[in-house]
Amino acid sequence: YFINPFLIGPDALEHYHNIQQLINFGYLSESFFHYFYFPSYYLSQAIFGVLIGFSPNGFNILNLSMGVLTVLIAYSLGKEIFNDSKIGLIAALLFSISPMAIFCVVYNTSKIGGLLLFLLCLFIQIKSIQTNNVKFVALFWLAILPLFLWHPELSLAMIPILLAYLLTMIICNKYHLKNI
Hints:
By secondary structure, the protein is an all-alpha fold. 75% of the residues lie in helices and 0% in strands. It has helices at 12-25, 39-52, 56-82, 85-96, 99-106, 111-131, 134-150, 152-156, 158-174. The longest helix is centred in the middle third of the chain and has 27 residues, at 56-82.
């Protein structure tokens, strides 16, 4: 406490207050900047709160729906990468019972939306590699921007993935190999 007088940790009440502040006044309170996630989390929660109702149970429904979408994207990733729906089902099952997914839904933390956007970025990147279509590149950037504004540490993992892909493309072009 003496090193850092501000409490740090996944306290849903502090997030709930920040979301309420955003709904009521249109901005985040300066007194809560010590306990702060990035704007995409609060904005999505505030929009949901205005549309459905501002209550902890409503936010649990939002987190649960994000978790379901994340499981569906995990299935799609497994199916696309290995071209087998059974592996997609295993990927979806493993993600659905993972402690991180359960923790994020139960305790109303923001990482479930970040995981959703992260897996969505991976899925879009795989589709863009498979099809060489420019629209997937635009979709990728539309997905990675809110991911960066959600939790930057989740989006930072995309940098080595993009660099590995770029390096692979350079090697393939240099040695006239068929695109991987």
